[in-house]
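Field: COMPLEX_INPUT
Field: COMPONENT_COUNT = two
Field: RESIDUE_TOTAL = 652
Field: MODE = joint
Values follow.
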Amino acid sequence: MSVTFADIEAAAARIKGHAVETPLIESPALNDRLGLRVLIKPETLQRVGAFKFRGAYNRLVQLNADERKRGVVAFSSGNHAQGVALAAKLLGMPALIVMPSDAPAIKVANTRGYGAEIKLYDRLTENREAIAAAVSAERGAVVVPAFDDPHIIAGQGTVGLELMRQAEALGALPDVVIAPVGGGGLMAGTATAVKALSPRTAMVGVEPEAFDDTLRSLQAGERIVTKPTGRSLCDALESPAPGELTFPVLMKTIADIALVSDAEVAEAMRYAFSTLKLVVEPGGSVGLAALLAGKVKLFGGKTVGLVLSGGNVDPELFARVVRGEI
Amino acid sequence: MSVTFADIEAAAARIKGHAVETPLIESPALNDRLGLRVLIKPETLQRVGAFKFRGAYNRLVQLNADERKRGVVAFSSGNHAQGVALAAKLLGMPALIVMPSDAPAIKVANTRGYGAEIKLYDRLTENREAIAAAVSAERGAVVVPAFDDPHIIAGQGTVGLELMRQAEALGALPDVVIAPVGGGGLMAGTATAVKALSPRTAMVGVEPEAFDDTLRSLQAGERIVTKPTGRSLCDALESPAPGELTFPVLMKTIADIALVSDAEVAEAMRYAFSTLKLVVEPGGSVGLAALLAGKVKLFGGKTVGLVLSGGNVDPELFARVVRGEI
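Field: COMPLEX_OUTPUT
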């Protein structure tokens, strides 16, 4: 059962007053540099520092009393973890989060700080879904996937809903909307909202070069699960495949996928630091990286919606990036 | 002739479409930590990365054709420099900026990047006003002071005007408004706007401990020019005295001045990085530093307007701060 525009509007009503309605901002400097009008949606300013709080809250608030007592279990590289942990805390239910042992320390610490229990796993040798399923069976906890869940997708879709409405309030209509693609939850939800309001707006996804699973899947016409051969700076976008629920939506809505290198990502983070004065994590900056590198197909458009999906980056890594060491 | 609310409204009309109307943002995390409702006005997101662009544009746009041909000269630690340089570029007039030789490299580079000519001086041994006056006499250029000018003060006052109107749109009324105090231009303008709209809102200024000239002046009832004995992390707030035009306004409107140490400033910058996901320069973060350190007299208030005045900080310094080396 696919996510509809009505689902996204319902999600918006549920998260109102809990998630932050992040402002739509413009940087004359960025506009001048690109010769475009870029409408920036900074989910870095969202609760837990990433858009993931939206989907997590939308999902958890719909759990009944019995489910809430049993609690939730989620697996996540870090932002969904924090989103679920905080939503669970706000709603008064226990949460166990299965996280890769090499997740950014800030994401692990924040998740713990919200009161969640954490189970670390080895990203390359263990299967996170299997671990979460085992925990769920053991405790009767509700599994909250990071993207393959209609309520999660609908929650993330509120990013697109807000972006379009805020753009309209400025008298602007995005020709293109750019968003990072990991498992595809943000893109699937955002595309659903955007296309409902403006079918001609093109959706452009961005992936790290080393994790181009969605591009390959779209080209093949079916989900391709890639075997991770290396790492990317973009810890948040290292899903080996687009989601089962998200992929059909991506197939229907995505006009193009751009790939960015770690070097381009670091450049974008530096630009965000020096010119936008925003702290953006690697995975959150891929859309900006693609724009700065001239890799985004604009289809003749001039007004671009750009989602900066999160800002949870370890100080050590951020320091190295701003100093140009990466 | 003192600056009036009408002057600030006129300034707002002049800068509209040129300066950015920075969003008013809230951080649930900050609100929870302090038990307050903090309405953040991030002038870090302003054009040139600091509120200074507002006053500079408001002043320069009012120059007549002959004055524009002769150009402008300004002296500044860096943010006013960038503001004047960019405004001059946009309005098509030459600009010479007199800057301390130890100004943050990013501020010097940006000023140069906007096409201004730069003259460096030694902060501790040379007199910047004298240098600027000499240049002005030589070229017939119009001197644009960093704060002691009614058009500059009115321009900066648009920060307060926007803050109050944006708060009203949220159904909120600040009990206290906090802003950094260097020469006092931002505070004088902002206080004029705030008090006109809400006389009972208390204005609280914040200075670095090492540059408490405004506090001492307010206590003495007259301008005290301090002799700089050391440095502060807050390069933007190292004026040795409040301005001649600004001081009477500060006397009338400031309810309290808080002083913050460099350590508290570094802590605030780290908090802005890790929790607000904002890049804030040392001088720009003093209000946040005072709040986090519990040094702000709130007069029983719960809703606080907080101006983050700028985000122009060298990557090297920022890296050291986020790593905890400072």
